[in-house]
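If you are new to this repository, start here. Below is one unmodified record pulled from the training split, so you can see the exact layout before writing a loader.
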Amino acid sequence: MKKDNARCGNQTKKAVISVFTGAVSGIAVSMLIILVSVVIMVKTQSMVYAAVVPITVAAVLAGSFVGGYVSARLNKSLGLLIGAVCGAVIFLAFLGIGSMSGGSVSMVTLLRLGLDIFSGAVGGVIGVNKKRRR
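And here is the target side for that same chain:
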């Protein structure tokens, strides 16, 4: 009985570490995409404010996908669940940052949550099913 509890604890610890690592990598990818977009807008001097929201949504979705992929590759199992949790963690991180800067929560926010969870889950499924090189 103790072996089962120890194994379950190790699997949980591995899952938490993989989700945290995936979330950090996903946030980094999102921030990099946003940074490159800002640099391009500043260099071209064409600040199209209507493009800011779609760019940030696409950046966070790409980050959720990468985060789900990385976390599932590290965990090596439960890709759908691990990726979805990673996408939710990334969403909550950006939601926290946005609410600190005065952002509001609306129905669109729930849609973005669903999209981030879906994107992370897809990344997780692809990450688990990717064949390893020998």
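Two things worth knowing about this chain: The CA atoms of residues 21 and 80 lie 16 Å apart. The chain has four helices and no strands.
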